[in-house]
TrEMBL record:
HAMAP family: A_A_dipeptidase (MF_01924). Its cofactor is Zn(2+). InterPro entries: A_A_dipeptidase (IPR000755), Zn_M74/Hedgehog-like (IPR009045). One of its GO terms (molecular function) is zinc ion binding. Catalyzes hydrolysis of the D-alanyl-D-alanine dipeptide. It catalyses: D-alanyl-D-alanine + H2O = 2 D-alanine. This is D-alanyl-D-alanine dipeptidase. The active site is at 166 (proton donor/acceptor). Belongs to the peptidase M15D family. Keywords: Cell wall biogenesis/degradation, Dipeptidase, Hydrolase, Metal-binding, Metalloprotease, Protease, Zinc. It comes from Endozoicomonas elysicola. Zn(2+) binds at residues 102, 109, 169.
Length: 191
């Protein structure tokens, strides 16, 4: 039986309880800031987004493919740090705007891996802030284009919509209907 850990509307994702790979980019230094932003590598997602994620997992299962998660819920304090390093709202939401889907727990940064954990070719690395990372960019290889389309199709059918400037970012379509998750409703020790 699967154990589900929740804090408010956030569900804890784990490789033990879900057939996914978690490699939170901001829990370590291998990210565009070069610094660890999160205090731990616990990965949370809003319960509504979790339902969609489970659908995406099921769609990929017969293909022997899995999702790899780089980020999900992101506290507002972490968003401010990221925006300070990349103050371009096309790629990192301005925390002052109140529009950040990660801070509501309804966005997820993902890719697809094969059954051995190898990432499929997507044309750029995660957090590549160039037009090459935009959906529909035809300057990447045909294989990368196919893989991006597969990821987009899976996530769309599961209930997510893409962010046009980042092939890895997916969010629920009605972001503004979810409140920002305040510090008192947040898991302890995340930032």
């Amino acid at each position: 039986m699967m154990t589900i850990n929740t804090v408010g509307n956030l569900v804890l994702l784990s490789e033990k309880n879900h057939p996914i790979t978690i490699d939170l980019a901001y829990a370590g230094t291998n990210n565009f800031t070069g610094k660890s932003i999160y205090k731990n590598d616990l990965c949370y997602l809003h319960i509504d987004a979790m339902e969609c994620l489970l659908k995406a997992i099921e769609i990929l299962k017969p293909l022997n493919l899995r999702l790899k998660i780089w980020d999900a819920f992101r506290p507002l304090a972490a968003q401010a740090i990221l925006f300070k390093h990349m103050p371009n709202p096309d790629y990192v939401g301005d925390p002052e705007s109140g529009l950040c889907p990660h801070c509501r727990g309804v966005a997820i940064d993902v890719t697809i891996t094969d059954r051995f954990g190898r990432e499929l070719e997507m044309g750029t690395i995660f957090d590549d802030f160039r037009p090459l990372a935009h959906h529909g960019n035809d300057l990447i290889s045909e294989e990368a284009q196919r893989n991006r389309l597969m990821l987009a199709g899976v996530m769309n059918v599961a209930g997510f919509k893409p962010l046009e400037t980042e092939w890895w970012h997916y969010q629920l379509p009605n972001v503004s209907s979810y409140p920002m998750i305040q510090k008192d409703k947040m898991p302890e020790g995340i930032v």
